[in-house]
Design a protein that fits this description.
The complex is a heterodimer. Chain A is an all-alpha fold. Chain A is about 80% helix and about 0% strand. Chain A has three helices and no strands. In chain A, helix 2 runs antiparallel to helix 3. Chain A is elongated and about 50 Å long. The termini of chain A are far apart. By secondary structure, chain B is mainly alpha-helical. Chain B has a domain at about 585-630. Chain B has helices at about 10-35, 45-70, 100-125, 130-150, 155-170, 180-210, 215-225, 235-255, 260-265, 270-280, 285-290, 295, 300-325, 325-345, 350-380, 395-410, 415-430, 435-460, 475-490, 495-500, 515-535, 545-555, 560-580, 585-605, 610-630, and strands at about 75-85, 90-100. A two-stranded antiparallel sheet of chain B has the order 1-2. In chain B, strand 1 and strand 2 form a beta hairpin. Chain B is globular and about 120 Å long. Chain B starts with 7 loop residues before the first helix and ends with a helix. The chains are: A mainly alpha, B mainly alpha. The interface of A and B includes residues 31, 92, 96, 98 and 99 of A.
Chain lengths: ~100, ~625
């Protein structure tokens, strides 16, 4: 059995890696992956919480997040492909047309 | 106020005739103004027939009116045609009022007006804006008739403003030249200053007396403010009202301190100068005061102010006329000076003498202006009298008219101007005003001197320029009629003495024999003196000594009033506007603009389009907020 706080640390680490990825990565594809990482970090946290409280709600929540992540990836990748076709780049620093 | 002394049939006739007098020119003016709007082309013949016909009909109506009215033997007739404004007790009607004073005025306005219209047909024959000219001229006559016939002060004020508007339009008639427009603006603005005073006077009178009907006003004023007779300089309500009315009169009649517009108003066509700036419009101020004589009699101080303004103006303008070299400016200054005489007479309480002088002045000044117009027409638009000379042989008709006009202006014996000016001088002595009398005598001397200076320089002496055009019969006809009027017009119109009942007409004052001889001799001496000076070649000589040249310059500019007003009013105002170029009030709104622009700059700096920047700031704020809650909780 793994102790709860390890799970907590794992989740935080995973989330931080995701945040770090979103912040520093320039490629839009990697930013999308980083967001997935963050989502999974949250999912792990839910499952850990579910076990800690002996309550299955967290695991049900995980299923919802999984669905959400799947649809999000589908839409995100779709947009990504369209973007790449039109602009021939995925560098977010160059995709800065919508500034104030 | 309906007079029951008239039978219904008579009332009907009189009211219709009375209405026709101002309506005929107004009708013609509106046709002439409206026709171009509906792109209806009227030929010159149609325009002149319409303009002249309406004036002739108005003259005819005036004539019949005079005849019918005097047949009734009543002193006044008034008729209300319609209601204009009705608010609670405040009621203003379109009512006309006829008595001896307005009878004289409408006779002058329609009679002299008709002659000037007739003359203008010849004078303006070659002008492109023939129709516009007659539209304005007719409108002017209509406004002036409303002014003199109105039975309440507000209706009178409508005519008053209409006259001012037409004056503006006609002075700037040749609007292609900038200086004409400036002269028109000057006339409009300067008279406006007086009109503002007059409007305030009307408000005050209504506030105090609750009516604006002129006749009721006199009666109620006499009840409310009985003449105490003791203090001559007390500033009470009646004095203030009178002074405010006087301000309007001063502006319109070109008296001190608003006189400087009148000489500049000569920029308009000459018939306009004759009609507006000599015969009719400028006398509106005299009419206003004579009309409200009941009010003015209650305030000795206001009467003295009227007399003082008249005396100063008559002297000032006469001295300025001495040195002018533009024929129209000489006549303009003489107009100012002659109206000064009328004001002097009004201030002395010699109402009928003032109106009498107004009438004779209208005749001879219209004659002078029209002959000056014919002169200028013949001399190829030459205004400078020193470039004319020796024209008596070449233009005998015009020189004859000029001689008659100058003689009447100089009040040589048996001319019309003689009788009226003598009457004013006599009344001044009768009312024990020796100082004003001496000013008037000095003024009479100067007047005779400069009018014959004008005549001698233009018509005698060495010829400088040949007349190249002869004025037609249509211009000479009115001149002949006016010349006859200027000679024989010295018959005091009847009924005035009874109208101004306060005048002591029973015990006729007889000045001493010596004084009579003296007053007759003064103009004759002036003419003789003028002849001697002319023979010696004084006129037109360039002055050698510097002080004299300075004085000459001072008089030429009409006592430098333009310079004074420029320094006192115009320059400080321009300085003020220059200081306030970045509008003080606007700076508040400019501040709002500035702040929102700065905020916009700040916020759009955040929106830089960098996705990583957004996400980073999101993270930083989330962490900061989380950290804050953790620390504080």
């Amino acid at each position: 059995m793994i102790a709860e706080h390890y799970l907590l640390f794992f989740s935080i680490a995973l989330f931080s890696i995701g945040v770090y990825g979103v912040m520093v990565r320039r490629n839009l594809l990697f930013m999308l992956i980083s967001i997935e990482v963050m989502l999974n970090a949250i999912a792990v946290l839910f499952v850990a919480g579910s076990r800690y409280h002996n309550n299955s709600d967290g695991q049900i929540m995980y299923l919802l997040i999984l669905t959400l992540a799947a649809s999000e990836v589908a839409i995100g990748l779709g947009l990504l492909i369209q973007l790449y076709r039109r602009r021939h780049t995925l560098d977010v620093d160059q995709l800065s047309k919508m500034k104030g | 106020m309906m007079d029951s002394a008239f039978s219904p049939a008579m009332t009907q006739t009189l009211s219709n005739l009375l209405l026709a007098v101002p309506m005929l020119p107004l009708f013609s003016a509106s046709v002439l103004i409206l026709a171009p709007l509906f792109s209806v082309k009227l030929s010159k013949t149609v325009v002149s027939v319409l303009a002249l016909g309406s004036m002739a009909a108005a003259v005819l109506c005036t004539f019949i009116l005079n005849w019918q009215f005097s047949a009734t033997g009543e002193s006044s007739f008034s008729y209300t045609y319609a209601n204009w404004i009705q608010v609670d007790t405040f009621s203003i009607s379109f009512g006309l009022y006829l008595d001896a004073l307005s009878k004289v005025m409408i006779s002058i306005v329609t009679g002299v007006g008709f002659l000037i219209h007739l003359y203008s047909v010849g004078f303006m024959d070659k002008d492109r804006d023939f129709q516009r000219f007659f539209a304005y001229l007719n409108l002017f006559v209509a406004a002036m008739l409303i002014l003199v016939l109105a039975d309440n002060l507000l209706f009178l004020f409508l005519g008053w403003e209409g006259v001012g508007l037409c004056s503006f339009l006609l002075i700037g008639f040749w609007h292609q030249k900038t200086e004409n427009n400036l002269a028109a603006n000057k006339a409009f603005i300067m008279t406006r200053i007086g009109d503002t005073g007059m409007a305030i006077g009307l408000f005050l009178l209504f506030f105090q007396l609750g009516t604006l009907n002129i006749q009721e006003l006199q009666i109620r004023a006499a009840q409310l403010w009985p003449l105490t007779g003791s203090t001559g300089s007390g500033i009470d309500m009646v004095t203030i009202s009178c002074l405010l009315l006087l301000a309007g009169a001063v502006g319109k009649s070109g008296q001190l301190p608003l006189q400087s517009w009148l000489p500049d108003a000569m920029a308009g066509p000459t018939p306009v100068s004759a009609l507006i700036h000599a015969a009719t419009m400028v006398t509106a101020g005299v009419y206003l005061i004579a009309r409200n004589h009941g009010l003015f009699e209650l305030s000795p101080f206001a009467m003295q102010s009227v007399a003082a303004i008249g005396a100063v103006t008559l002297f000032l303008a006469a001295s300025a006329a001495l040195v002018q070299h533009d024929v129209k400016r000489i006549l303009a200054y003489s107009t100012v000076s002659q109206i000064g005489y009328m004001f002097l007479a009004l201030g002395a309480g010699a109402w009928s003498a003032a109106v009498f002088h107004l009438m004779t002045h209208a005749f001879f000044k219209a004659l002078l202006f029209l002959s000056a117009g014919a002169l200028i027409y013949s001399m190829h638009h030459e205004h400078n009298i020193f470039r004319m000379g020796g024209l008596a042989r070449k233009l005998p008709m015009i020189s004859g008219c000029f001689l008659i006009g100058c003689a009447a202006l100089a009040s040589l014996p048996l001319m019309s101007g003689f009788f009226s000016k003598e009457l004013i001088l006599e009344k001044l002595l009768e009312n024990d005003m020796p100082f004003f009398w001496s000013v008037a005598i000095v003024g009479a001397f100067i007047t005779a001197f400069y009018s014959f200076r004008l005549f001698f320089v233009v018509f005698l002496g060495k010829p400088h320029q040949e007349p190249d055009e002869r004025p037609g019969k249509i211009m000479l006809g009115p001149l002949a009629v006016l010349a006859i009027l200027a000679v024989f017009g010295g018959i005091e119109p009847g009924g005035l003495n009874t109208l101004f009942s306060s005048e002591s007409s029973d015990d006729v004052y007889h000045p001493g024999f010596l004084i009579t001889v003296f007053t007759i001799a003064v103009p004759i001496c002036a003419v003789a003196f003028s002849w001697i000076q002319f023979k010696n070649g004084v006129f037109g000589r360039t002055l050698q000594s510097r002080p004299l040249a300075k004085i000459h310059q001072f008089l030429l500019s009409g006592w430098a009033f333009d310079w004074l007003y420029q320094k006192v009013f115009v320059d400080p105002f321009i300085e003020l506007t220059r200081m306030n170029r970045h509008d003080l009030v606007d700076s508040f709104y400019a501040g709002i603009v500035y702040v929102s622009q700065k905020l916009n700059r700040l916020f759009s700096w955040f929106q830089n389009g960098q996705l990583r920047w957004y996400s980073s700031s999101l993270v930083i704020f989330a962490v900061a907020a989380l950290g804050y809650t953790l620390v504080t909780s």
